[in-house]
Amino acid sequence: MQKKRLLVGVTGGVIGVMAVLLVKYGNPPNMGYCIACFLRDISGGLGFHKAAPVQYIRPEILGMVIGAFGAALLTREYKSVGGSSPLIRFFLAFVAMIGMLVFLGCPVRAVLRLAGGDLNAIVGIVGLIAGIAVGIYFLNQGFSLGRANVQHNLNGQVFPLVTLVITVLVLFGTTVFYTSQEGPGAMHAPVFLSLGAGIAVGILAQRSRFCMIGGIRDFILFKDVHLLIGFVAMLVFAFAGNLITGMFTPGFAGQPVAHSDGVWNFLGMALAGTAVTLLGGCPLRQLIAASEGNTDCVISILGLIAGAAFAHNFGLAASPKGVPVAGQWAVVVGLILVLGLGYLGNKQFSMSGGVNFEQNS
């Protein structure tokens, strides 16, 4: 157990250090790593949305998939499984992304924003914890997406192989992808540094089972600090790195790629926290598990990418200017739908004649 905790702490610490390093060499401030933001950029890079400032095939994401896939193969932990409520997973990931783009960051970036001095992140983290608590309530009531079934390995290998093809295209400088000329998408560290950082984090996250949501969930449920150690290590190392490099700027106003509307920072992350708790893991964990052969998690990644495209195509995503009215309504509707799904998915309601998400598992 001590070795496992050490590995989780090392993973969190490496993410914190790498995040500072990536920002130092070109990534957007307080965004050395952000799974939601980077998947949004990839969504734009693939042409799924036309928001010109946020289009770039992020090598960090590509590297994480390659690193986790390679580690799973070498340790013989690779296994293709799937078939567990795929459409519900897609929906939960879709609405979670909308919540994160209203806050402007995933759970990883919430910690990195706080480590850089962005006090708005505190409100977002409180909202995230509240959302996780709501998700735990539904899990305790019996909510389940069902069991995954073993599949032919080729099913799980499609995702990392497609990622490898995209990586080769990026490394050869192909112009087939959309690339921002200004804004956050135009801010990026050198490709090989970003790819290498992603591979390192992918390997460590695969070995440690690192998960931002899992740490908070397990602490609330069992008072288990195992995964929470990574959360704390990331905060401490990123904070120290920002102090050393002079990138720590405390305050609420004028923070990079952020807004100071506390209500929607809270509600956006509450929506994300509830959805990903029901989903079974944070976006980073979904990405790693997808690389290990879990095709259900591939569906979750596709849901996140689709949610990012929808948010930007229909003007739902926040900006430093604030949260558009459409984005506010999207969060409210998303909360209603996710809470309704949590209610419909519990076993007590199922036994009374309602929906049972496990009946086909």
Automatic annotation (TrEMBL):
It comes from Desulfoscipio geothermicus DSM 3669. This is Uncharacterized protein. Keywords: Membrane, Transmembrane, Transmembrane helix. The lineage of its organism: Bacteria, Bacillati, Bacillota, Clostridia, Eubacteriales. The chain crosses the membrane at residues 7-23, 56-75, 87-110, 122-139, 159-179, 185-205, 225-244, 264-284, 296-314, 326-344. Signal peptide: none annotated. The keyword Secreted does not apply.
